[in-house]
TrEMBL record:
Origin organism lineage: unclassified sequences, metagenomes, ecological metagenomes
InterPro entries for the chain: Bact_response_regulator (IPR050595), CheY-like_superfamily (IPR011006), Sig_transdc_resp-reg_receiver (IPR001789)
Claim: Phosphoprotein is one of the keywords in the record: yes
Protein keywords: Phosphoprotein
Record-linked Pfam families: Response_reg (PF00072)
Domain Response regulatory: 78-204
The keyword Phosphoprotein belongs to this UniProt entry's keyword annotation: yes
Species, as recorded: hydrothermal vent metagenome
GO biological process: phosphorelay signal transduction system
Protein name: Response regulatory domain-containing protein
UniProt-listed SUPFAM superfamilies: CheY-like (SSF52172)
Length: 209
């Protein structure tokens, strides 16, 4: 389903405050901007997608007071991303930045269990690396499979995508234990396009357009 960007605007002409729901495709053409008019007076303003989110200016280029709707921000789909490789975390966050998905990252199985807490099911999906103990940190005692088993013991029925930097072979994927652990797919991080593949898989499982 397509998500709209919610923007609250205060008109600089009459002071009227109102909210616009903007389909992303409206900002994909015309140089990435769209002109709108105030709902009460004749003032016009231009909305465009900036580096830090939605920007609103008048036709002369002066900024107009704007705030992202906090309720809309809260609607983002929560996904727990578990990986001891901080670069992998950064790549995933960058790739998913323009999607309705909000990543919560954990660099160990122990940290991931803390993030899950007593409200594990607030996460729509978990992405976990298979080889968490290879970080070199002696405090990391849980590997990917160990973490998934611990998560299952909490009765957290959350679908899982498993990632690994090693080659995925058919006999690993076909092992029925992964089905029992809620695994819905595997991503091989040795592939330079692994983050895009992850995005596609997440959208498929979360039923996002």
């Amino acid at each position: 389903m397509a998500r709209k960007e919610a923007v609250e605007i205060k008109c600089s002409g009459c002071g009227t405050e109102f909210r616009l729901w903007i389909p992303p495709e409206r900002l994909s053409g015309n140089g990435g901007s769209e002109e709108f008019g105030c709902i009460k007076c004749d003032d016009h303003f231009i909305i465009k997608k900036g580096f830090d989110g939605i920007e609103v200016t008048n036709p002369e280029g002066d900024n107009i007071e704007v705030a992202r709707d906090e309720a809309a921000a809260a609607e983002k789909i929560q996904v727990l991303f578990v990986d001891s490789d901080k670069l992998a975390v950064a790549i995933a966050e960058s790739t998913l930045g323009e999607t309705p998905i909000k990543l919560t990252s954990a660099t160990s199985g122990e940290m991931a269990l803390e993030k899950l807490g007593n409200e594990a099911n607030r996460f729509a999906l978990v992405v976990s690396d298979l080889h968490l103990k290879e970080s070199g940190d002696p405090e990391d005692k849980l590997d990917g499979e160990d973490f998934l088993r611990k998560m299952g013991e909490r009765d957290a029925k959350i679908p899982v995508i498993v990632t690994t930097g090693k080659d995925i072979v058919d006999d690993i994927i076909s092992d029925s234990k992964w089905f029992d652990l809620g695994v819905k797919g595997f991503i091989q991080k040795g592939n330079p396009f692994w983050a895009e593949e992850l995005k596609i898989k997440l959208k498929e499982l979360l039923e996002l357009d």
